[in-house]
Amino acid sequence: MKYNRILLKLSGESLQGAQGYGLSTDVLHSYAAQIRQAVEAGVQVAVVIGGGNIFRGLQGAGRGFDRVKGDQMGMLATIINSLALQSALENDGVRARVLTSIRMEPIGEYYAKARALEYLAAGEVVIIGGGTSNPFFTTDSAAALRAVEIEADVLLKGTRVDGVYTADPEKDPTAEKFDAISFDEVYSRGLKVMDLTAFTLCKENRMPIEVFDMDTEGNLMRLLAGEIQPDSGTVELGETVRIGHFSQEGRELDLNQRVYDCIHEVAAQVKTDEGTFSAKTMLERFLFTPDLQQTTIGRLSGGERRRLYLLSVLMAAPNVLLLDEPTNDLDVTTLSILEDYLQSFPGPIITVSHDRFFLDKMADTILEVRPEGRVDIFTGNWSDWACKRRPAEEKKPEKSEKTEKPQPERPREKKLKFSYNEQREFETIDAVLAELEEKLAACRRAQEACGSDYVRLQELTDEQERLSAELDEKTERWVDLNDLKEKIDAQNSQG
């Protein structure tokens, strides 16, 4: 992903949808789905929402309300919207927390930076309501403040337009779009992207702002994935390169089209290392029976459509594959078919995945993108990478301490040793890892057996995610303990 942590600013007016007031469930579900995709891709997401669909302080002041009281009413409106988004996210299987800048437990927890970062690190969406808790400040200012405070990589402003224009494109058809624009130019042109308080705060703290159309499904993920053209540099592809991109959001399928026609229009046949196969044969290979091939796509289940989309990517005969979380929403049988196909794929495969079992089976090289922008290359699968990853930087200070100005009579260094609890943990952690791996395998088998029981499937999916997270944590701990054991053994061998 292009960003690791984002602050997403949503306008209250956008939540009202076509109805022109209140809350639109369709818009809420759309926003929740886009945020879920970002979270599943490993992005930490914090959200600030306006309250203009319910009440705006300035509007209240224009109708005779005291400005301070009006702004306070607007703050409460943002919390109503925050609760609505939280509910939509939780209904979509995403853990979300509402933090409020005004104390109002149990509606929401009182905002604190440390608490927000803790929840973000745990994979939860943090929705910050109540503005700044002060009158005369907009939710744009609140978004800028929280983005700086939580050290977000970018402030993303989701609107109904796809960027920054010379004028409002909804009112002025001659408005021209900026590909990029500086803070100073926004000032000089008087563009009303955000209020000046928010802009000044972002400028002084070097917080980049990106404006995009949140109402177009999939735009948030495309922005995070970097599918927008780079501001600098170039991407060059060879003349013979044919890229196949399997994305999380998939592509729009014609629900009235037959399954067979969907694949046949991509290619009548495909050539692999195993031979040449017709569209019909490939469909059968991907579990589409002859009867199912003649049905319309609209009658397929969500999992079957996902499988059909995967096959359509492969039928285009790419020689380079880009796979974004390919194992998400795939049943065990389909996953096995995919793995068999990829093992015979003649070209390079680049995949982003949280599925360590898939990476262990398929990967022979791991690319680790470091926070400073450096890319470290490891030869081997995920388990190999977990064992080998020990940045050289961590060891350099120890060496410098030993070689810097050695003293003739240096005090004896304190011997390394396991604590009692560490010793017990070291002795049992292999068994713990094996038990977790067995539980994950059992969970996968149960998913395969649950058929069309989608409630049970969701329960098993949640359990799988929990077990995977616990396994990752224990694996990291195993690496740390083994590293300490090696240091202890080396120390003891030196007397």
For the structure shown, list the relevant keywords:
3 domains, 46% helix, 18 helices, three-stranded parallel β-sheet, seven-stranded parallel β-sheet, Carbamate kinase, Helix Hairpins, 495 residues, Rossmann fold, alpha/beta
Quick recap:
The protein is α/β, with parallel strands linked by helices and 495 residues long. The protein has helices at 25-40, 57-62, 67-91, 113-121, 139-149, 183-189, 196-204, 219-224, 259-264, 279-285, 290-293, 302-315, 332-343, 356-362, 382-388, 392-403, 420-449, 454-493; strands at residues 5-10, 44-49, 96-100, 109-110, 125-129, 154-159, 164-165, 177-178, 209-213, 243-246, 269-272, 275-278, 320-324, 349-352, 365-369, 375-379.
Q: Secondary-structure blueprint of this entry?
A:
Elements lengths: L4 E6 L14 H16 L3 E6 L7 H6 L4 H25 L4 E5 L8 E2 L2 H9 L3 E5 L9 H11 L4 E6 L4 E2 L11 E2 L4 H7 L6 H9 L4 E5 L5 H6 L18 E4 L12 H6 L4 E4 L2 E4 H7 L4 H4 L8 H14 L4 E5 L7 H12 L5 E4 L3 H7 L2 E5 L5 E5 L2 H7 L3 H12 L16 H30 L4 H40 L2
Parallel strand pairs: 1-2, 1-6, 2-5, 3-4, 3-5, 6-9, 10-13, 13-14
Antiparallel strand pairs: 7-8, 11-12, 15-16
